[in-house]
Amino acid sequence: MEETGTERRRLVVIGGGIAGSLLAKSLQFHADVTFIDPKEYFEITWASLRTMVEPSFGERSVINHRDYFTNGRIVTSTAIGITETEVLTADDRSIAYDYLVIATGHRDPVPKTRMERLDQYQAENQKIKSAQSVLIVGGGPTGVELAGEIAVDFPEKQVTLVHSGSRLLEFIGPKASDKTLQWLTSKRVNVKLEQKVDLNSITNNNDTKTYHTSAGETIRADCHFLCTGKPLGSEWLEDTILKNILDGQGRLMVDEYLRVKGRKNIFAIGDITDIPEIKQGYLAQKHASVAAENLKLLMATGKERKMSTYKPGSTTALVSLGRRDAVAQFPFTTISGIVPGMIKSRDLFVGKTRKQRGLQPH
Fold this sequence. Notes:
Elements: E1 10-14, H1 18-27, E2 32-37, E3 41-43, H2 48-53, H3 58-61, E4 62-64, H4 65-68, E5 73-76, E6 79-82, E7 86-89, E8 94-96, E9 99-102, H5 114-129, E10 133-137, H6 141-153, E11 158-163, H7 174-186, E12 190-193, E13 197-205, E14 208-213, E15 218-221, E16 223-226, E17 266-268, H8 281-300, E18 317-321, E19 325-329, E20 334-337, H9 338-344, H10 350-356
Parallel strand pairs: 1-2, 1-9, 2-5, 9-17, 10-11, 10-16, 11-12
Antiparallel strand pairs: 3-4, 6-7, 7-8, 13-14, 14-15, 18-19, 19-20
């Protein structure tokens, strides 16, 4: 149901990632939407590691905002401030809002245009192809999935993964970590735990680089990829009206309706929230769906008591291991191999994610 009356409510959405893109698309015909993002495209981020070994995959996973968001304004800039009535951007705009959604996720310095992003993937692919040995720093989902992609697509390459923690994938349970380590070892990936790499003391010897770890080991590799966690995209909020609603980790505190605590007309969705759950893309999309329904209700009727509540997600997690395999953690069991791989690893949910935004899956 669309907004009744002569004027539609002004909705500003900040952040064009998984959550923000879906919410903006869902509400573009229900409000006067302004969509603020520093880049011109939405990226299916969990497909980025596949795109590094197969750059053409990015043709489907890197999508211009205008392809799915056809009815509203796009402001290609960074939000730098919020007042009670306006959002301030880095290009000196003041954008008025009746309702505001913050979905700035994690800070990730990527290029502005889709073509520049695709060119970046071509360069990273060339970097992998031309190397005989690759060092991956970080054993979270990004580092593990990149190691898996390289090990499967380029089995002749020597891959070393260094992780500072005592086990891989510390965001999920130890059974999943053990199965992942076994799989990587079976693919000849050399995994070093409880060590850090000093990226400030790399020495070059012809085309090969020598890296030093905190355990005193030396690792020789032709190139490296840094796959450690990215900081939250909330630092800009520290000088705004929401500065006192950030928790100790910089996350926005939200209520059960996904509204920022103490605010009737400001919502937060995705990784920037303090919801106690594993931060994953499919949950961020659930945030977007709940917030969109609540905003439709508020804009059409103003009846808060009928709003939908968001219940934190379970401990389900899927991590791809190359093109065929994966490790899956469910509430009562953990499995690995081809069966969970059939769920995620072949297409990485790219077709499904495109369809959610009204696009052809292929």
